[in-house]
Fold this protein.
Amino acid sequence: MRKKKSHSSICAEGVFKDLVSFDGNNIILDVSINIDFALNVEKAIKMPLNVYYVDNNLCCPVCGNKLKGYSTRSRTINGREVILQRYLCAGKGVCGKYVDASLDSFIGKWQRYTREVQQFGLNENLIDYSSLEKISEKAADRFDIEISRETIIKSHVQKC
Ligand SMILES: [Zn+2]
């Protein structure tokens, strides 16, 4: 006889399914999921993945109508290329507004590094006044990314 799943595990699967899905070599993430998640999955399954971001709850900012997937665009985050879904307003009439899946939950609009990475550089410097070289090395260990000294300097003067 099959063992009945506990209620909590069913709920967890349901939530997970809405936020993360797989399609061949693609991992499709909701915009609320930090890119670190995809990188950790890659490490766990020992296979490179294409990272796609989608936002299924997006509405048109102009007319409030539903949006439909139209095309994609790429963006570099922490040195890694990801694909963002671009949506087109499906509203009646002539709205025609395009909206990209927004990653504002973990990275600033024009930034190349996540807030977490930027904050890491700031904190390291506040704690022990590490050299930029040292901070760069620590960031490489912590996030598995190469981050230039110039970027660390910028993160000290920019608001994330
Ligand atoms: Zn619209």
Summary: The chain has a mean pLDDT of 82. The chain has five helices and six strands. Residues 107-160 form one domain. The beta strands are 20-23, 26-30, 50-54, 67-77, 80-89, 98-100.
